[in-house]
Design a protein that fits this description.
Length: about 500
Amino acid sequence: MAPYGLDHHFQGRAVLPAVETMQTLAGQVSEAYPHIDVHHIAAARFEKFLPLTADGPSIRVFCDLSELPDGAIRAALITRRNAKTAQMSRSVVHAQMDFGNAGDPLPPLALDLAAALEGSCFKVTPERIYAQLVPFGPAYRNIVRPLLLTAEGALAHLQAPDLSSGPLGSPFVLDAAFHAACVWSQRFAGLVAFPVGITRRRILSPTQEGQTYVVRIFPTHPHGAVLRFDAWILASDGRPCEVLQGIEMRDVSGGRLQPPDWIREGVPGEDDPLSLQSDATIALIERDTVMTFADRCLSDLEHQRMAPMGARRRNGYLAARLACKRLARKLSDNDHRTPSRDLETLAADAVRPVCAKTRGAGTVACSVAHDRRFAVAAAGPGALGVDVEQLRAGIEKALHLFTSAGERIRAEQFEPGPIHAAIRIWSIKEAVAKALGISLAQSWEQTEVVSVGQWESRFELRPGAQQSAYHTPIDDHLVTLVQLTDYAAEAGA
């Protein structure tokens, strides 16, 4: 083992990384069975750590290879231990996996799912990860930018160090992907979880030393003692390099390792406050999570619309398009098979947003908004509008520009204060303008907010016909949704 291998340790004891075990077994299979494609791995299990020592005797290990009926090769990494009181030895299987089992073809990767994260984002710097969450030595500190986490998963930028690769590519890239899943587990599941198995690993383009990559972690079984994830490892331009399915992770410390308190602070509850309307679907994207390859997710029409935009405007535009594509997938039973470019989010005029279902005919009403931090999209029946705003001091001083005398009185009476009331009134009228396809000035005149609430406000477009507006505060931002089904029905009648 190379000296840097001692940087990988568990509770202060250096152990052979799972990724190095896979490299070792792949090398043995390639030598004995040259026709086997070792880039197809299935049923990988990592049963017991293999301790490493810097100055002790070398460790004698065995590689047991057996042929399976389907033509795959099963490889196991084994050590033999002598009993102290008898002339006997026993074999210990540290890892086992099958090589050459191609399995079913991989589904196409829905690149938009890797191009951003849905939800409010929690960020952890590499320095904090490797000081407190995954305390490995320098060679295994390969998450190189703040790790992005939401309940939907994780996005990490990885750097493969200039250290030796093997038949499976650089082992450090997948190892860092495990780190991202481990940090996600600590924040959202309260477990310090290590990988103990992988259902399927497909290497499409082996990772190379010195190159940068992006990993997208998908929690598929995020609760319980055993967590499961899928992972995509992508080149910096979004090209897929590896796909892993069924990464199994659990606490292997017997409860001795616990996440620090700070990683659990502010974890959102099970009930998503953005799901206030049962017949409206909402997606929220934090703009900082939009990857540089997000433009590869766009349709031809979406590309044409973006072409004249500057860099700053492009980011908001891309986040909005990705949010609309999330909606289309949600409305089609979480379809992950339709290619991103086939999800059109612009109407024929290349301005109005649409949300086309990937299964079945037709579209649903769609509304999009973004501010400096978030992009949010909503879809549902009837006339619908959404807005997102940052709470900012001073907006209450402009109340006279967009409110009536009655609304100003209600703003003064709102217990959280006039700033919070003003932003709610403003965002209601923004959302109404989008729902009805009218100008903001027209919405100011036609919309009367009759009550202001923390989570729900009421407004009228005609005297005596009240509608609800739903609010979700997210840090110092506010998302507002209005849905005018009854009004739309009357207007069309």
